[in-house]
UniProtKB/TrEMBL annotation, chain A:
This is Putative Se/S carrier protein-like domain-containing protein. It comes from Moorella mulderi DSM 14980. Residues 2-64 form the Putative Se/S carrier protein-like domain. It holds the Pfam family Se_S_carrier. InterPro entries: Se/S_carrier-like (IPR021778). It comes from the Bacteria.
Automatic annotation (TrEMBL), chain B:
Pfam families: Aminotran_5 (PF00266). It comes from the Bacteria. Keywords: Pyridoxal phosphate, Transferase. It is an enzyme of class 2 (transferase). Its cofactor is pyridoxal 5'-phosphate. GO terms for molecular function: cysteine desulfurase activity; pyridoxal phosphate binding. This is cysteine desulfurase. Belongs to the class-V pyridoxal-phosphate-dependent aminotransferase family. Csd subfamily. GO terms for biological process: cysteine metabolic process. Its EC number is 2.8.1.7. Transmembrane segments: none annotated. It catalyses: (sulfur carrier)-H + L-cysteine = (sulfur carrier)-SH + L-alanine. Residues 2-367 form the Aminotransferase class V domain.
Length: 97, 383
């Protein structure tokens, strides 16, 4: 599951992944997972590497990637895989004048 | 009715805009960033779509650097009030709208100064005069892309180059040009671009926005809920949330997207060719009437489809009323919210009668309008 710093990126991530014919859907996110935008992109683990590459190319900012287990509809975090700092997936921006 | 007031708001809208407004209001049963139900997500997807369409239209690489506002005036206020600090100096042209002049005038109380670079009577701006006005404290050049009074297209590429050379921010007001003339923020060196949704972009009123190249340099004017980082009392820095507190007008923004898509599908060149032909026809016909004074550049290539006139022997207001009463021609008369531009054109005392065709007008409508003006002039001659 991927989380994002804003809804804009969550929606863009969904569009990017689905546009490439991959399965991925946005779901409301448990508060304990992240408070950033309330949405997470759910991906099957086997396509996550491909999906991440696509998102990187599309300039989507990520917050973190976590592995979760769904147990009778409840989401349980089993592994926090990676936490991204702003700019990890993008080139540093020039500063304004 | 012959609608010649597209500079105020475009009418009619493309059919797809009406349909999208209807469908959105009925079916986008949610608020963007507020909830993960289908309606909220669909509303979010529609807003994302419009943001991406606008980014493509303006050559903006990162769509999230476009923030939605309620109109171009709000966007210009965000740019000016959000950027400028006491001691800063701004350069504007003598053709600016009150949406720029009034905020700057108010900012004078907070120690912001501005210089007005004079234009020729037809609105022409000399870019070198802009460069000469640069001071050590100059932070921003702010320029309308085209005058809403004389229709004059301003030299944004030349001025943008000057701004780039002097490391200044460059704010362009595209109220009269977005959806009419191609704009590329990279080529023109634009760091802030204000647009409205309800004119050339053919969307509904209540939509507009600001492109912000350097979000770190702009303070928000409105703080509040963004549906993100909700445990924090501080405003998020992430774009576009930083500048989009409160519930966004998703149905109208979706309809604006339909307008931009219409422009994309029709082709900006085709739209421009058509409105330029109508402008040329109108200019040509008006110039043949000795009692009519036409303001602005003579060549239709140098203007957007905005034509200001005065008719000898009758005020602009009365002429507008006569055209409406006798031929149901919709125009606008008066000062057009731009006293600075009227001062430049020499029409501050009289105002002007403004005729502004749009993409949906026809040559036959222009011919009827010219015949109506000729008839009005005839009535005045006989009086």
């Amino acid at each position: 599951m991927l989380t994002f710093p804003s809804t804009h990126y969550a929606l863009k991530a969904e569009k990017t992944v689905q546009g490439a014919g991959l399965q991925g859907r946005l779901i409301p996110m448990p508060r304990e997972l992240s408070s950033l935008c309330g949405l997470a992109l759910e991906l099957e683990p086997e396509i996550s590497v491909h999906a991440l590459a696509l998102l990187q190319a599309a300039g989507v900012r990520l917050e973190k990637k976590v592995k979760v287990l769904k147990d009778r509809g409840r989401i349980r975090v089993i592994e926090a895989i990676e936490k991204y700092e702003a700019g990890d997936l993008r080139e540093g921006e020039e500063s304004g004048s | 009715m012959i609608y010649l007031n597209n500079a105020a708001t475009s009418w009619p809208k493309p059919e797809a805009v009406y349909q999208m407004a209807d469908v959105s209001l009925r079916q986008l049963s949610g608020s963007v960033n507020r909830g993960g139900n289908k309606g909220a997500l669909d509303a979010g997807r529609a807003v994302l779509e419009t943001r991406e369409l606008l980014a493509a239209l303006f050559g903006i690489r990162e769509p999230e650097q476009i923030v939605f506002t309620v109109n171009a005036t709000a966007a210009l206020n965000l740019a000016l009030q959000g950027l400028l600090e006491p001691g800063d100096h701004v350069i504007i042209s003598g053709m600016e709208h009150n949406a720029v002049v009034r905020p700057l005038y108010a900012l004078k109380n907070r120690g912001v100064e501005f210089t007005v670079v004079n234009c020729a009577a037809d609105g022409t701006l000399d870019p070198l005069a802009v460069e000469k006005a640069i001071q050590s404290r100059t932070r921003l050049i702010c320029l309308t892309h085209a005058s809403n009074v004389t229709g004059t297209i301003m030299p944004i590429f030349e001025v943008g180059e000057i701004a780039r050379r002097h490391h200044l921010q460059f704010l362009v007001d595209t109220a009269q040009t977005a959806g009419e003339i191609p704009i590329d923020v990279e080529t023109a060196g634009i760091t802030l671009l204000a647009f409205t949704g309800h004119k050339g972009l053919m969307g509904p009123p209540g939509t507009g926005g600001l492109y912000i190249r350097y979000p770190d340099t702009i303070r928000p004017l409105i703080y509040g809920g963004t549906g993100s980082n909700s445990e924090l009392f501080t405003q998020p820095e992430i774009m576009p949330d930083k500048f989009e507190s409160g519930t966004i007008n998703a149905p109208a923004i979706a309809a604006l997207g339909a307008g931009v898509r219409f422009i994309q599908e029709t082709g900006l060149e085709k739209i421009r060719r058509h409105t330029r032909e109508l402008t040329g026809q109108l200019l040509e016909g008006l110039r043949q009437i000795p009692e009519v004074t036409v303001y602005g550049p003579a060549e239709p290539e140098r203007r957007v489809p905005v034509i200001s006139i005065n008719i000898r022997g009758i005020s602009a207001g009365e002429a507008g009323a006569w055209l409406a009463d006798h031929y149901e021609i919709a125009t606008r008369s008066g000062l057009h919210c731009a006293p600075l531009a009227h001062q430049t054109a020499g029409t501050l005392a009289t105002g002007t009668l403004r005729l502004s065709p749009g993409y949906f007008n026809t040559p036959a409508e222009i011919e009827t309008t010219l015949a109506a003006v000729r008839e009005l002039v005839g009535v005045l001659r006989d009086a």
